[in-house]
Design goal:
The chain has 386 residues and is of the alpha/beta class. It is built from eleven helices and 16 strands. The chain has a seven-stranded mixed sheet with strand order 3-4-5-6-7-8-9. Strands 12-11-13-14-10-15-16 form a seven-stranded mixed sheet, with helices on both faces. Helix 9 runs antiparallel to helix 10. The protein starts with a helix and ends with a strand.
């Protein structure tokens, strides 16, 4: 408003906002500036020169500015914009009020980046995708909606990293002054970055490398995800029980957890509109090896003639793995498959340990050959493998 006064702009302007916020602006408007204050509150509907403005509640505000609001704008030619800054996690009534709106553009604040302890009424890189997921669940964000992160603060990562993270959620950041063209071919990135939503991604990494958290983050803006846990129950192992509890606690609302080792069936039956995250192949392989009985060979050699039943066990194991690879190749869902890389460290001291290491390395290689993308996590950083 100060710049407008200094530039001597003569055009009439409607300044729309809550009463408390407009009071703050009073001293910023020149005495002869044709600015008309329009006081609104959540629930109001305005018609401003053919633009219909629905005022929505925000999770934002204080004693000085009053309760914050957001704006659902319909243009004279039917275009739709959701202007959602400033706000914390979207109020339930606001999400419900935009059900089925199928916005052309959503400008959604993302102020604090990776700082999650700010304690303010703003979004960050943990809560931003949850807001997108909530809007997607009610049809406010669709495959053609241009979701743009705005109100970016200094706690965000460098632009290239930010773009990659936003791209996984079907969102983007743009330079100041960008003109948004609705309906353009490059209006918004496909969910999952530059690949199609049906992509199959193999996520590899060592223990505690961040592979599971990274895979979960890629799907954080999805309203519904099938999370396949292959860990099984270990009631006598407190450390394992605590680890599983942490994994469950960080899954977003709306995700369905399926505890199963029947990965081939789950991949075959998955539908294109319901993403799938499998965590992990390493534990699945251990269960498959137990079921096949490959440990009957004490020498750790495939098809060992010296061990009774070893050849049959190897054949069963191979068939089970072939079935998984075929299901992975043919799945229709956008799917992430998490697996460990265990062959880069100390050579296992036991024959069974070496056998497991070799089996997992071979399975990872075959799954990678059928994947649209392969990502390696090292010290929490994702490296795309050609």
């Amino acid at each position: 408003m100060l710049f407008r006064a200094w530039a001597g702009r003569p055009e009439p302007l409607d300044l729309v906002g809550p009463a408390e916020a407009l009071e703050v602006f009073r001293d910023w408007v020149g005495p002869d500036d044709p600015v008309r204050p329009v006081v609104v509150a959540a629930g109001d509907v305005l018609d401003l020169d053919g633009y219909v403005v629905r005022v929505l509640a925000a999770a934002h505000g204080d004693a000085m500015t009053g309760p914050g609001v957001l704006y659902d704008v319909t243009t004279p030619d039917g275009g739709r914009l959701l202007y959602a800054t400033d706000t914390g996690p979207l109020p339930a009534q606001t999400v419900e009020s935009v059900r089925g709106r199928a916005f052309d553009v959503v400008l959604l604040e993302e102020s604090f980046g990776d700082r999650l302890d700010h304690g303010t009424d703003h979004l960050d890189l943990a809560t931003f995708p949850l807001a997108v997921a909530a809007l997607r669940a009610v049809g406010a964000v669709t495959g053609s909606t241009d979701v743009v992160a705005v109100h970016l603060g200094h706690r965000n990562p460098p632009l290239a990293q930010l773009q990659a993270r936003l791209g996984a959620w079907g969102a983007r950041a743009v330079p100041d002054g960008t003109r948004l063209l609705t309906g353009a071919d490059d209006a918004q990135p496909a969910r999952g970055g530059t690949s199609s939503p049906g992509r199959r991604t193999l996520v590899l990494g060592g223990a505690r490398s961040g592979k599971s958290a990274w895979a979960e983050a890629q799907l954080a803006a999805e309203p519904a995800v099938t999370y396949v846990a292959t860990s099984g129950e270990r009631p006598g192992d407190k450390e394992w029980v605590d680890r599983v509890a942490l994994h469950r606690a960080r899954r977003p609302p709306g995700w369905t957890t399926v505890e199963s080792t029947d990965l081939a069936a789950l991949l075959r039956d998955a539908v294109s509109g319901q993403p799938l995250l499998v965590d992990c192949v390493s534990l699945w392989l251990a269960a498959a090896a137990d079921e096949a009985g490959i440990w009957s060979c004490v020498h750790g050699t495939a098809g060992c003639a010296d061990c009774t039943g070893a050849a049959a066990a190897d054949a069963k194991m191979a068939a089970t793995c072939d079935e998984l690879v075929a299901a992975w190749r043919g799945t229709r869902a956008r799917a992430f498959l998490v697996s460990n890389e265990v062959g880069s460290g100390v050579v296992p001291a036991t024959a069974s340990g070496r056998r497991y290491r070799d089996e997992l390395g071979r399975r990872n290689a075959r799954l990678a050959a059928e994947s649209d993308s392969v990502v390696m996590l090292v010290a929490g950083r994702a490296l795309a493998l050609a």
